[in-house]
Amino acid sequence: MQVLFKVIRQAQNSSVRVQTYQLDVEPSNTILDCLNRIKWEQDGSLAFRKNCRNTICGSCAMRINGRSALACKENIASELAQLKPLSGSGIPEITVAPMGNMPVIKDLVVDMRSFWDCLEVVDPYVSTDARQVPEREFLQTPAERSQLDQTGNCILCGACYSECNAREVNEDFVGPHALAKAYRMVADSRDTQTEERLEKYNQGTQGAWGCTRCFYCNTVCPMGVAPLDQISKIKQEILDRKDAQASRSIRHRKVLIDLVKVGGWIDERRFGLHVVGNYFRDLQGLISLGPLGLRMLVRGKFPFGFEPSLGTAEVRSLIESVQRLESQEHPSQQTNSKGDAL
CATH 1.10.1060.10 occupies which residues in the chain? Predict the structure, then answer.
């Protein structure tokens, strides 16, 4: 079958151009197979990264039809199945582009320095006093080791980082790949710096609170690491250790849950006063709400009343059931999973 490959090409610091290549392919051919053929048979100047060809190294990550993926994993059949059917006898098209959130070096090759720098920020290495006794093994039970299985599958391909909306608008945010690795350290029974790590990940929007929960990282991860899930686990570890006065980010989460329990949905008036105004303790925060409140009044958008949603009792019951289950799993909030005092 015939397929048109539209490749987004660009030299460093130059304008973008689209180049089209036509290939006779088999449905089982991977995108990497096709790129190899383009390079070997049609255009030797085309640049892209590759190595293992077996979904292990992560080198061939790129955007395929608008989403970041591994070229060695995606094949023609799966890509065409996701495209809208073409009218008439048009030749199907597959668009290949470089990953996002990283500058282009050439064609499909991007500069990943920011990706690696962000990973370094979270200090993704086990730090333990046991290192002082070199003849001693770092022993773990099977249950302890199983806590690391999912995050250990990360191959650092960059797909999640490429699609991260939070990173696109906030260069301080370390990205989902780094925080997934960060949770691996939090969950590792051999690590002795859990509290220090969580304090670090709790700072501003550089760490866990910079995530906007867009879910793209989970969607594109080729290895099932689910970075958003790991970020949520870090947030929960922080929330278990902090009260609402610790920061606005923590207050945001706790107030949201409290208001949903009360009304089924959020009373926006109280939400702003409690989160931004810190229950009337933060004068500067309260003043900052003034312009927004005035604009809402002028446009008739200010809610003077609040009606609880239908099913509020059921929602409250569900939340309380989850909270009871969590308290049973962690009967004492005085110690964490490693037995350290909080």
Answer: 112-241
